[in-house]
From TrEMBL:
Molecular function per GO: hydrolase activity, acting on ester bonds
Gene3D superfamilies (UniProt xref): SGNH hydrolase
InterPro entries registered for this protein in UniProt: GDSL, SGNH_hydro_sf, SGNH_plant_lipase-like
Key words, A-Z: Glycoprotein, Hydrolase, Signal
Signal peptide bounds: 1-26
Protein name (database record): Esterase
Domain of life: Eukaryota
SUPFAM superfamilies registered for this protein in UniProt: SGNH hydrolase (SSF52266)
Record family assignment: Belongs to the 'GDSL' lipolytic enzyme family.
Pfam short name (any one): Lipase_GDSL
Length: 368
């Protein structure tokens, strides 16, 4: 009986893999266009050179795949790199590049980007917490500026056969508030405005001709070494069963629930569009909960691979990855966290697979 059950399971797994491969082969896109922040920036912040004062322009960033820093905040590839490869497209050039061909894709994401404009943070007295001005409104303008070179006067039909990834947005908005002295509860009062801005941005893309749009939620920030180090407490009640800080994950969960509600409304409003919610939160949290489910590559949830912080999380804000004296672990693929703030290439690969085939995207990007 056990042998037959194993054979049946194996047959089902093979069938699922073949089905996913067939879906990918049948599903073609003209291009992938991405918007967001440091989670998916592939070089916009560095199009005018690689400023030495920015840590992620320094080794060992980029070591796993590229062999040197590429302005990606990881040891290698990020989600949009894996998505482009899946659909037979080149890596997305940064939209600020003056020499790139954007017909097969472009990346508007820029490190430090927020959902809200600078005026929002000025109104909260947090201007000094936003170090780069690349909000949703700017990124939509950047896309409009390159669209004429992409599709000329026939943009609607071209963009209808392209994949758009819109976010994540919101993470840096909350970072600014939380590191600016706001409590998680105070930050959550601005979630409706942030989510409305994201939803409005999706509608603007649809008006331009976008049909397939992936809208990621925010990550479980309470599980990240930077938060665990800075806001760690001696009270066990502040942590969930996995060791993540509850109040910060509650903030992320509240944002994602409101975003899912907005996306559901957009799906109802725009019947001809395919609007997908990508679940960054569950993708990361499941790896924290059950690292063994993802193979032997993943062995540590909270310890930062690159840095020189020591201690439980190997994170020190004054000795971050890319700073003098910092070094990387021997096997980044065994870690979830690369630098305490961003994920490793291996983690991004797992998340991308979950977006393409499920369960971390609703509906999954690949479809028959």
């Amino acid at each position: 009986m056990g042998r037959r059950s194993s054979s049946t399971v194996a047959a089902v797994c093979v069938a699922m893999l073949l089905s996913a491969a067939a879906a990918a082969a049948a599903q073609k896109y003209n291009a992938v266009y991405n918007f967001g922040d440091s989670i998916t920036d592939t070089g916009n912040l560095c199009t005018n050179g690689k400023p030495s004062q920015i840590t992620f322009t320094q080794p060992p960033y980029g070591e796993t795949y590229f062999g040197s820093p590429t302005c990606r905040c990881s040891d290698g590839r990020v989600v949009v790199d894996f998505l482009a490869t899946k659909f037979g497209l080149p890596f997305l050039p940064p939209s600020k590049s003056t020499s790139a061909d954007f017909k097969k894709g472009a990346n508007m994401a820029i490190t430090g980007a927020t959902a809200m404009d600078a005026s929002f943070f000025r109104s909260l007295g947090l201007s000094d917490k936003i170090w780069n001005n690349g909000p949703i409104s700017f990124q939509l303008q950047w896309f409009q500026q390159i669209s004429s070179s992409v599709c000329g006067s026939s943009c609607k039909s071209y963009l209808a056969n392209s994949l758009f990834v819109f976010g994540e947005f919101g993470g840096n908005d909350y970072n600014a508030m939380l590191f600016g002295g706001y409590s998680a509860d105070q930050a959550s009062t601005y979630t409706p405005q942030i989510v409305d801005t994201i939803s409005s941005g999706v509608e603007k893309l649809i008006a331009m001709g976008a049909v397939d749009v992936v809208v990621p939620g925010v990550l479980p920030i309470g599980c990240f070494p930077i938060y665990l180090t800075i806001y760690g407490t001696s009270s066990s009640s502040d942590y969930d069963a996995l060791g993540c800080l509850k109040k910060f994950n509650d903030l992320s969960t509240n944002h994602n629930n409101q975003l899912k509600t907005k996306i559901s409304a957009l799906q109802t409003k725009y019947k001809s569009a395919r609007i997908m919610y990508a679940d960054f939160y569950s993708g990361v949290y499941d790896m924290v909960r059950s690292p063994g489910s993802y193979g032997t590559w993943f062995s540590t949830a909270f310890e930062t691979c690159c840095g020189s912080g020591g201690g439980k999380f190997n994170y020190n804000n004054n000795a971050r990855c890319g700073m003098s004296g910092a070094s990387a672990c021997s096997n980044p693929a065994s870690h979830l966290s690369w630098d305490g703030i961003h994920l490793t290439e291996a983690a991004y690969k797992q998340i991308t697979d979950g977006w393409l085939n499920g369960p971390y995207c609703s509906p999954a990007i690949l479809h028959s």
